[in-house]
Amino acid sequence: MTRTDRAGLPTAGGRKVLISGASVAGPVLAFWLHRHGYEVTVVEKANAPRSGGYPIDIRGSALEVVRRMGILPRLRDAHIDLRRLTFLHGDGSEVASLHPHAITGGVEGHDLEVRRGDLTEALYTTVRDDVEFVFDDSIRTLDQHEHGVDVTFHGGGARSFDMVFGADGTHSRTREMLFGPEEQFHHYLGYCFAIFTVRNTFGLSHETVMWNTPGRAAALYAVGEDDEVHAFLNFSLPEPPFHAFGEPAAQRNLLATVFADAGWEIPALLTAARDSDDLYFDAVSQIRMPRWSRGRAAVVGDAAYAPSFLTGQGTSLALVGAYVLAASVAGRDHTGGFAAYEHGTREFVTLNQDLVGRGGATLFPVTAEALQQRNDRLRRLTAIPVKEGRPAHSAITLPEFTLAT
Asked: What is the C-alpha to C-alpha distance for residues 245 and 250, in angstroms, rounded to an integer?
């Protein structure tokens, strides 16, 4: 267990809160709760803030959250600036080459795309001196009662908190302890994916190349002029492959079977996936919950409303949701605060989760007819930079934050 301590910091009448998860939503929530005087502990099962990772987008209202946190200039310096998105036929020939914003709905010169690790590092360094971080540990049990929440940890020990928040991702253990098994909230979208890094032997720079056949896709993301690129394999399946989850050998075998007859660079990518030490495999899914709180505990970010990468809004929802949650509980008891969180965020979440159909149709057509229609649409798209983002990206008025005195 690795612990970072806080000392001499003001608290909201001694109110203590625990946040599970130190990726995106967790540090944002910690930042704003501390600024309202709460004594915050963040527990994270990894042994340090997670570095590296694939590119993520920050759009619309989420940009205002990072601006208010004072990290927008740092993130602008880390902006990847992808300049081209090229779609390929199954034989590797070009369908169309576009600016990425023509597909994502992003706004040129305004929205951000950064490495996930650059965002998590910026968030962590902004809040690490103000709150307690406990790495290489996780919540073992939660016991709620009238006066608080008693928590035990896998690393040993027990502590009590006024509120507990789950910001521990799509497969949240905190959510499971509060609400029950993931299956009741997990909405499978008909695809599985694998992502891993490979040597950049393709001559790619600041661009993405996407290959499609019906029901199958592969992509290479070159976020700069690095020696490595992010490789991505995606395929449609009517039901989730439960036998493969948590079983790396089964995942690699499934990829090899699905893409066995594929051309282009797919054989090389399959070899790289087989030998990779950073392969991540999962179902493409959303988390949809009828409520995000129970008693003195609540969930936020992907743990509450993962929208899937098909929307391009997972990180932005986590940033905005954490901000609104902190503003909602500040100055209220947990009951009123959680009700305000639901009221202030639910419509925004729904609008962005509903973008998923557009993303799936564009990136991963599952029939030959749908793929041909997609390709025809791509050829008609304009190369003019996008001036306005999708309305869903900014469909929320962020509350002003009144700081504790």
From this structure: 8
